[in-house]
Amino acid sequence: MGLYTRDGLVEDVDVHSWETPGDAHPEPQVRTLKERCLSTPGSFVWLGLFEPTRAELQMVARVFELPKLQVEDAANASQRPKVELDKAGQGLVVLKVLDYIEPTSDVNTGQVAVFLGPWYAITVRYGAIGDLRSIRRRLAENQDLRSQGPIAVLYAVLDLAVDSYLSASDEVSTDVEILETDVFSVDHSLGTPDTIYRLKRENVEIRRAVGPLVGLGHDLVREQVPWVPPTLTAYFRDIGDHLLRADDAVESVDNLLMTMLMAATSLQDLQQNSDMRKISAWVAIAAVPTAIAAIYGMNFDFMPELHERWGYPAVLLVMGGACLLLFRAFKKSGWL
What we know:
This protein is of the alpha+beta class. The protein contains 10 helices and 7 strands. Strand 5 and strand 6 form a beta hairpin. It starts with a strand and ends with a helix.
């Protein structure tokens, strides 16, 4: 946590959980930062929590007088993304942060909740994804951004989250292009539908993160968000544009995967039909010598050519000739 002024980061304190034996209770430090912030015009406090305990959240809620329902939403690691800010830009924003895992082609999801007040910004993060240390350095080094107050933290977190959406969607799109080549190849894999389904599931992870923010993206692009300061309008408009791009990418990938799934299923059906035709053709060819052998295998004394010297070769010749004629017929018709 730290106190940010127009001149930079005044105090940066790394506080661990006080539930571990030997750790000091951090509430006095938090209250001290609050008092220093309120006595320093143009400053704000940023408190960052990573997977906080119930006691930590209760302490923060007491010091910063946070609404109980919003604290419960921030404590829920599976909370749906949402933006609950009033016209002054105060309230709660819940965002999902994504990370694409290259070896397994999986999309992992983390969560960041941002409380905004007139003199504070509180981030509550769940999951290893979405490290905010780069944002802390960015605010400490950028005076223009820092001078905007707590909403600068929201902008930086939004920018980080939306960039993760675009990165994950680009990686999934690359996987889809590779899979598309496999689907329409001559020797496509029978496991392709399973791969398509898995990619659809990963695309759903991106949709769950992006979908609830599409309305915000449209408002940001139209510059119809009252809590965005004029000096940051262009920056937030850029975020809105990236949000809509991510949503378009998710929609395109989903439609393409559905088309590929239908194509892969149809190709599998065609392959199975082709296999069945080949099996049926070979069975028909084998049926002719089988039928002749079955007839001459019956125990009757009086049968045509049974006692002739040329009977056995003649029967073999008939079997071979019939099989050859059937083979040519099936080959010509495309069954073999």
